[in-house]
## 1
Amino acid sequence: MRTVAVVGTGLIGTSAALALTRRGLHVHLEDADPDAARTAASLGAGTTETPDGPVDLAIIAVPPALVGKVLADCQRRGLARWYTDVASVKSGPRAEVTALGCDTVHYIGSHPMAGRERSGPLAARADLFEGRPWVLTPTPDTDTETLNAALELVALCGAMPIVMDAAAHDRAVALVSHAPQLFSSLVAARLEHADETAVRLSGQGVRDVTRIAASNPAMWVDILSANAGVVADILEELAADLGDTVTALRALQTADEGERRSGAAGIEAVMRRGNAGQARIPGKHGAPPTRYETVAVVLGDQPGELGRLFGEVGALGVNIEDVAIEHSSGQQVGFVQLSVAPAAVKRLTVALREHGWSVRD
C-alpha cells in the first residue's frame, strides 16, 4: 500500500493520516470543511490535492450516521481500490451501506479503540493508535485483499487487529466506552453548581473519573445516537446497582444493628465486584493485568523538575510503568505517582530520598 485517501480530518482521520505519512505513504485529505483539511495538511498529515487516479485505500473518518452516504459517494467517484470506515459504531453503518447498494466486497468496517477528550485535527497525534486494539468487522462478502489492506493499515498505525462481528463490537464498546463516557459526564455534572469550597478539594480520584467529561458533546451525540439502545440497557443495569447501593447506604444510618450489617455487606459486595472487574482490564500492550506499586514523590513547580526526576529514576535502572500527577490545590507543589514493579519500590524510595527528593509513605 502506497497511497491513501482520508475522508474526514477530525481527530481520528488526521491521526491516521499523520501515522501513515510518517511511514512514507502518500496521503490525500478530504473534508466537508475545507479549513479542517487544510489544517490537517499544515500539520504534515498529507495533501489536499485530488489524486490522479484510484488510491490503494480510502479511510472514511466521519460520524456513524454519515458513513453509508460518504462511502457511496467515494465508490461512485472510484476513489480507491479498497475502503474502510473508522466510526465507533458498526451495525448501523453496515445496514445503511447495504441498503444503499454499496460494494461490500471491497469494503470493511473498522474501529480503532483510541481517542482523546479533545477533537479536531489540532488534537491529532501520529502515535494515537500505537499499542491500541483496532477492531475489524468484515461483511460476509468482504474479500481477502480488502481484509489484508485493513490489516496493513492497522500495522502501519502500530495498533493490534481484532476481528469481531459488528453487533458484538457495538455491545462491547457500549460497555467499555459509551456508558463510561455518560457516567463520567453525570459525575462531572454534579460539580457544575457545587460550592466552590467543595470543588477546590478535588483530588486525583475525581480527576480520573471526570477526565473524559471534557469530550465534545456534539460528537458524542452522533456516536450515542447510533448505539443508543445497547447503551441504555447497560445504564439500566447500572441504575439498578446504584439503587441497591443507595439502599445499603441508607441502612448504614439506621439504629438497627442487623440493618447496618446488611448495609455494610452490600457496600462491601459492590466494592469487591468492582475490584474483580478492574482486575480484568488488560495491562500494557494488551497483556494480562500486572499489579504495580506506587511511589509518590513531592514535586516543586519549577521548570525541569519532572525531567530531572525521570532521569534519576532511569539512572537507577527502574522502569516507570505508568505515571500520574496530582496537583495540590493552592500550593506550588504536586505529587508524582510513579507506578513501578513491586521489587523496585524499596530501592527506588531509598535512592530518591538520598538524592533529596521527598517521598510520601
## 2
Amino acid sequence: MDPALGLSFAVVLLMGVLISERASRTVISTAVLFLLAGFLLGQGMLGVITVESADPVVLILSELALFSVLFTDGMRVGVTDLRAAWRLPGRALVLGLPLTLVVTAVLAHYVAGLPWLESFLLGAVLSPTDPVFASAIVGRKEVPGRLRHLLNVESGINDGLALPIVLVLLAMAGGTEAGGWQLTEEILLGIVVGVAVPLLVLALERLPFLSAERHLEPLVTVSIGLLVLTICMATHANLFLGAFAAGVTIATVRPEFRDEFEQFGELVTELLKLAAILVFGALITPSFLFQEIPLAGWLFAVLALVVARPLALLASFLGTNLPRGQRIAAMWFGPKGFASVVYGLLVLQSGIELADQLFHLAALAIVLSILAHSSTDVLIAKKLSTTPG
C-alpha cells in the first residue's frame, strides 16, 4: 500500500473516532467524513492520495471490503430470522428491489440517454441499499423496531440478490470473459462453497475432542470466512456470493457463533469499508463532477434518489399497516451503499464501451446519496422517536 494512503487513512480514522460521539448527534457522519477527506486529499485537490481507478489496490481493497460486507450481512439474516418476520422485508425485496431497478433503468434511458442494456446494468448497480450510511435509523432503539428490522433485513439481502443480476447484465454487455454457462457455474459454485465450508467446519467443531476456548470462538467464524475466500479464489467461484451464502449458513446453523462474531466482524468490516470509501472519494475530482458529467447526468442522479426507490417502496407497501411516518422513512432511506461502489468499479474495469459513463453516473448517485442520507438520518431518527407507532 502507498505510505501516503496508509497515513491518510490512519489520520482520518483517528479524527473520525475522536469526533464520533459528537458527530452522532449532528448531521456529520463517519461515511461523509471519509468521503470528503478522500476528495480533498485526492489528485483533483491536494494530491496526497494518488490512486487511479485501474490501480490494483482499488479493486483489491474494494473486493475484500465487499466480501466482508456480504459475509456479515449474511449472518444478520439466518433462515429462522426471515421466517420470524418476513412480511415487510419480503415486500421490499421481492417487489421493491426489482421495481427500483426498473425505474432507475427507465430514468437512465430517457434522462441520461443510455441504451436499454446499459440502463438496466446501471439500475442493478444502484438498486442495493446500505443503511450503514443511515446508521442513526437502524442503530437507535428509539426508532420503532419494525422499521429498523425492515431496513436491516432488506439491506442484508439485497446486495446478494443484486449481484447475480449485475454479473449477468455485465456479461451480456461483453464485460466479462465468462460465457453464459461459465458464469452460471461460477455463481452456483460460489453458493456451494459458501454453504459447504461452514457446514463442514461447524460439524468438526461439534466433535467431542475438538472445542474452541470461549474467547477464541469468534476466530472460528473468521477461519470460515478465510477458507471461503481462498477456496473461491482458487476455484474461480464467485467469492461474493460465497461470502453471502456462508454468512447465511452460519446464522442458520449456529446463531450463537453469529453473536460471538458480531462486534469483531462489524469492526473489521467497518475498517475495510471506510478505507474503500476514502479511496473512492480520492477518485472523485472537481473535473469529474463538473466537466465530465453533463446536466442530464446530474438530473438522473437526483431522480434516482428521490423518485426510483420512493416510487418502488410506495407500490410495495400498498395494503400494509405500516404507519405513514415509518413508510416515508423507509422510502427515503435507501442509501446507495458500499455494494454499489464495488459494482460500479467492476463495471469501470470491465472495459465495456460505456464503462466510463456508467461509472460516472453511478459514482455521482452514490456521492449524492451518502451526503443526503447521512445528513438526514439523525434528524429523522429524532422525529420518529417522538412519533407514536
## 3
Amino acid sequence: MAASLFDSQLYASLFSAGDISRLFSDSAEIRAMLLVEGALAKAQGKLGLIPEDSAAAIGRAVMEVALDPGALTQAAGQNGVPVPGLVSALRDEMNAPEHAQYVHWGATSQDIMDSALMLRLRQALAAVETDLLILLTQLSDMADTHANLPMAARTYGQLATPTSFGAVVATWGQPLAALLEELPTLRQTCLLVSLSGAAGTSSALGPKASELRAELAAGLSLVNPHRSWHTDRSPVLRIADWLTRACTSLSKLGTDCLALRQSGIDELTTITAGASSTMPQKQNPVAASALIALASQATAQLSALHHAAAHQHQRDGASWFGEWLSLPQIVFCAASAARTAVSMTKGLAPDAKQMLRNLHAANGTIYAEALSFALAEQMRRGDAQTAVKDLCAKAAQEGVPLQEVATAQFPELDQATIFDATRQLGSAPEEAQRFVRTVAALKGRKEST
C-alpha cells in the first residue's frame, strides 16, 4: 500500500483528488515560489527598490527556468526549507550576477512559502467549490422532484414520523450551500500575501515595506493583511476548517446513504455499487463508505493542524513542519470527497415502493405521534400519550396495524388523515423547496460574479 492513498495508482479512483493532487506536488510548489519571487522583484522594481532592468530579468527568469526538485533536496534537508536552495539555483540559472543579486531582496523564506501556499490554496478552494456546485445542482433537482415523496424519518435508528425524501436530500445539501455562501468572506480574509522579512519587522525591506506588501498582494491577486502573520496561522486554520466542514457535511450524505441501503431498509438504489469477491448478491456502498472515511481523516488532520498552530517567538520550525504534514491531507480529503459525492449522487434514486413498505412496518406505529395529538383534542395530553402507548403495545401483541386497533377504540377520529403519510409530512415539502431556492440563488450569485 502506498504511503499516501492520494498518490496511489492502485487506489486512484477510490480516493481521487483530481487536479488538486498536482497542486501539492514538488513541481507545483517550486513553480508557485518562483511566481512569488518574480512578483516580488516586479513590485520592487516598480517602487524603485531594485533596478527595473534587474526586476525584468528576474521576471523573465522565473517564467523560463525549470528547477529540478531533486536538485534542491540536500539544501532543503539541511536548511529545513527549500527557499535558500531555490534562490541559489535561480541565481545560477539566470547567469547574470548583476541582476541575480536582487532575487529575494529583503524577503524571508516564510514570506515566499506562505504566499506560494496561498496561491495553491486559492486554486484548491476553486476546484472544491466547482464540484460542490455540481453536487448541489444534482441534489436540488432530486429534492425538487421528490419534495412530496413520503418516507420514514428515523431517530436513534428507529422509525419516528413521516418525512419526505426531498426534505432528507435538503438536509444533505443545506450545509454545503451554507459553506459556499461563506467562501467570499473566507477568500477576502484568509488568502493573504506574506511579506514581513526575517522576524516579521520588515527591517530589510526598507521604508516602503508597507507599500511593497500592497504591491505584491496586487501582483499575485492575494489580500494585503497589513501586518505580519508568520506565527499567526489562523488564516490557514480557517481554510482548513472550511475544507474539513465540507468533508463532514459530505460524510452526512455518505452516512445516510449507507444506512438507507442497508439490508432490511433498501430505500435507495444506485449505479455506483461495488462487488464482492465471493458473494455474488452484494452491492457494496463503496462511495458512501469513502465519504465517511475521508471525513474521519480530515478531522484527525485538522486536530493535528491545530496542535501545530502555536508557534514559539517569531519563527518556529517544529510547528511549521507540523503544518506541512497535515494541511495537504485535509485539502486532498475535501477534494476527493467532493468528487466522490458528485459521482455517487448521479446514480442515486429513491425506491418509492420500498419507502411505502417501510412506512407500514412496525404495525404502522410511525403514526403514533399524529394519533396522540388527535386524541389530545378530546383528552389531556398525558392521557392521550398513555392511550396511544397502550394501543401501540396492543398492535404489536396482536400483530395488527395501529390504525385497526385505534379505529376500534376511537371510531370518531379522522383516520384517513392521521394514517396518511402524504398528509403527515408537516414542513418537509417546504424544506425541500426552500433548499431548491437556496441553490438557485447561490448559482445566480456565482454566475453574476
